Amino acid sequence: MLRCWPDKTGCTMAEVEFVEHGHWAEVVLNRPKRRNAIDGPLGEQLAAVIRRADGDDGVQAVLLRGADGAFCSGLDLKAFNAEPPPDWMPRFGGIWRAAHKSVYECRKPIVAALERFAINGGAALALAADLLVVGETAFVQVGEVRQGMAAPYNMAWLRLRHSESVAARLAITGRRFAGAELDAMGVAHEVVADDQVVLAARRLVEELAGFPDGAAVRIKRLLRAYNDEPADAWFDRVTNLASGPRVRPRVVEGG
Fold first, then answer.
1. Which of 9, 170, 175, 243 is the most exposed place for a label (fewest CB within 10 A)?
2. Following DSSP, what letter does each residue of the chain receive, concatenated?
3. Dihedral of CA 42/124/192/194: which sign?
4. Which pLDDT band, with edges at 50, 70 and 90, does 253 fall under?
5. Which residues touch 109 (CB under 8 Å, ≥6 apart)?
6. Residue 15 annotated among the catalytic residues of the structure
7. Res 247 pLDDT > 70
8. Over the stretch 190-209, which tens digit does the pLDDT of each residue have?
9. Would you state the pLDDT for residue 116?
10. Active-site residue, selected from the candidate residues 44, 144, 206, 207
11. What are the tens digits of pLDDT across the range 5-35?
12. pLDDT bucket at 155, cuts 50 / 70 / 90
């Protein structure tokens, strides 16, 4: 069932849509006119729907994707540089932490469908997934270094899931890494034709959800036992090291 997001005036278009498909759920970043860019409401809604999927005993796996053929272009630069600032701006650090905590603490396997691009903050969401299905020409860009910024959530997920050498290639160069490169580094679970990404990701989620007696959920619990550090402690370790002068986000070249 499709869920819209209520506000004080009634039910409005969700910035994150939640669709139930029997034993699996689909979470869709839904700001296609802004290339599914991240703002405060998207962060809040993402945390809420991931928590909802995690708390539903009928849901055994989660698909995370972007609307209209793209994953996520990163922070919404127009919103973050607006004058006056949006009312959620002072709370955004906590909002974004809560979104990443919801993914970190999710007991269900999360598959991300990477179409076209996942840039900066969007890359962090793609890298947060347990399994990543990537289009042949789709790319990940951890480009904060090119802006003089740290990339704490990207680094947190890279170091949780991948080797130091893989993290260095993505985060120190700040360049784009497309399907075949992501596959060679072990970042991508599967690389498929660009127009087959969502279909392949859905097949994978359906497969995981169909394993007997919640097997995929139990396997993820066992995997996490090798790193049982609480979410805040894990993210604090990286964000504290990344602290420094504040830099306003700007457009990454080509992004």
1. 9
2. -EE-EEETTEEE--SEEEEEETTEEEEEE--GGGTT-B-HHHHHHHHHHHHHHHH-TT--EEEEEEGGG--B-SB-HHHHT-SSPPTTGGGHHHHHHHHHHHHHH--S-EEEEE-SEEETHHHHHHHHSSEEEEETT-EEE--GGGGT---HHHHHHHHHHS-HHHHHHHHHH--EEEHHHHHHTT--SEEE-GGGHHHHHHHHHHHHHTSGGGHHHHHHHHHHTTS---HHHHHHHHHHHH--S-----PPTT-
3. positive
4. very low
5. 61, 62, 130, 131, 208, 216, 217, 219, 220
6. no
7. no
8. 999 999 999 999 999 999 99
9. 98
10. 144
11. 444 333 346 999 999 999 999 999 999 999 9
12. very high
CB atoms within 10 A of CB 173: 14
pTM strictly above 0.85: yes
Please report which confidence band the pLDDT of residue 248 belongs to, taking 50, 70 and 90 as the band edges: low
Structure tokens at 190: 């599967």
**What CATH fold (topology level) applies to the domain 2-242?**
2-enoyl-CoA Hydratase; Chain A, domain 1 (3.90.226)
What confidence score (pLDDT) does residue 224 get?
A: 85
Residue 118 phi, psi (nearest 5) = -140, 105
User: Which amino acid, one-letter code, is at 25?
Assistant: A
d(CA 235, CA 100) in angstroms, rounded, equals 9
